[in-house]
Amino acid sequence: MSNSMPPAASYAALESQHRNGANWFYWIAVLSLITAVFQIAGGGLNFLVGLGVTLFVAAVAGAADQQVAPETAMVIKAIAIGVCGIVSAIFAGLGFFARRGHIWAYVVGMLLYALDGLIFVGLAFLDPGLWINAAFHGFVLLCLFNGCKAARALNSAIRETVEPDFGAGLEPGLEPLQ
User: Fold this and answer.
1) Which residue, of 3, 90, 106, 166, has the greatest Cβ tally within 10 A?
2) Residue ranges of the alpha helices (H) in the chain?
3) Domain housing 53
4) How many structural domains comprise the chain?
């Protein structure tokens, strides 16, 4: 039986890197929702890790004050908070599955976060202050990638210890029983 489980120190380091990567999804979800609520309420708070899509939705809803009746503006703002909540819940859900070692959650999350980063890149041409948000998206994507890589290594090591190679040690020409 091949045992390629990493030593305890390596396993602990991989587990830490995996959890740290997955935890970024929670940070993205929470800070994006906080940013959106403050933006919709008329505040100027903007966390670097926040999502461009929630910032855009909040900006559109915040601009509703000047364009429509106050009652309509309140409905638009409530809908915007709901939409931002759904987007945040998606990232929190990706964090939930990523922490359990699901590689697809990392991949989908990195793809969505990269697309969101393109929003900041586009807006940075209008407001140069947003380049820092775009750059921070790159940093978070690197952290997510490292977490995904660690999760793959852990999954592979666990799979190899759980699924032993029953053909190991057989004489050449003999096949393991099926």
Assistant:
1) 106
2) 8-40, 52-67, 70-99, 103-124, 131-162
3) 13-161
4) 1
